[in-house]
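Changelog note: in this version the structure field was regenerated for every chain. One regenerated record is shown below for reference.
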Amino acid sequence: MIDLKNDFPIFKNNQEIVFLDNASSTQKPQYVIDWIKSFLENDYANIHRWAYILSERSENLYEKSKEKVKDFIGAKYPSEINYTYNSTYAINLLTLSLKRSWILKKWDKVLLSIVEHHANVVPWLILKEEIWIEIEYIWINSDYSLDFDALKKKLTPEVKLVSLTYVSNVSWEIFNLEKAGEIIKEKNSDIIFLVDASQAVPNFRVDVAKLKCDFLVFTWHKIMAETWIGVLYGRKELLKKLQSWIGWGWAINRVKEQEYSPAWLPFRFEPGTPNIIWAVSLLKSLEYIENIGWYETIEKNEKRLVAYTLEKIEKLGDSIMLLWSKNKENKIWVFTFSIKWTHSWDIAEFMAKYNICIRAWHHCTEPFMKYCEISWAFRMSLYIYNNEKDIDRFFEVLKEFIKKSKN
């Protein structure tokens, strides 16, 4: 077992904290923090139009980060990697660009799964209000997997786009999107397939070629980099057809009094000065993952702690309900719970008194929660720096809460 907690200074500076809110955002290793500091002290300057050494060094690190991401997800070209603020912004950017490019029009249909995060629901609802697209939902089976029979039936000629999450942020089921991609492309290769990999990329290797997806989004603060750095991957042929809904700076080539021409890829979707510093944090978080043994280390720790947590849950009996996926072979190391007689926020506040960080409420999945007839839930989520002691502490305090709340 590799203990990585000492790599993260936040735990040295807050030794009482048990951080179990990693599905929301992850802590940063010293390796990433040191590199950000070094970059700001030694290399920082604006990029693209440069003729001096500082800008050249900044540009090199920025472009190196894109090469790293390209290899990380199995893309063909660095120009297919577009930096955004986060997954939410990436999906909004894509929806509005599809509208502006006349790729999505009135009465076109978009398919989503019922488990989607609001970030992959609301942008499409906004588009529905603006141009009258139609939205339909794919349901799930009793084992919480995607209903592929329903997917096949719903792939009518009106469907122009399917957008699915790779891992649900509440059920924690890893969906078989390779199969989904095959079904979609066999039905109609022109259907656009978008994957929300926000909860997948932090935990296992994602390959855009195997998924047969046209676009893929994820956010890097869940993978030990800083906030406001996300990725919109798009197939080069499709990106060339898209016109961005925002434009200035490097998003355009030439401007005349009454017209302009859009920039080439990927600058078309990165207007203005990009987030250079956080791109460096992205690069260094990937290097950190490589340094600790790549995904093999993450998945090995994950399997161990998933099994350990499920054992602890079984000992609690019926006093607590583990919601959704209980299959340790097909879920990541995040667990969502409900206690019938109390609100999830009361549990989160009780945990906070003992310096345990968890998340509560509907987790930005209200359609799915309503579908499951659940009003609220609380979530504990692990990552590479967590260990059995953290899990033990969580269940010790949870037992204390159950005991007190019953009285």
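Spot check on this record: The longest helix spans residues 294-315. The chain is about 40% helix and 15% strand.
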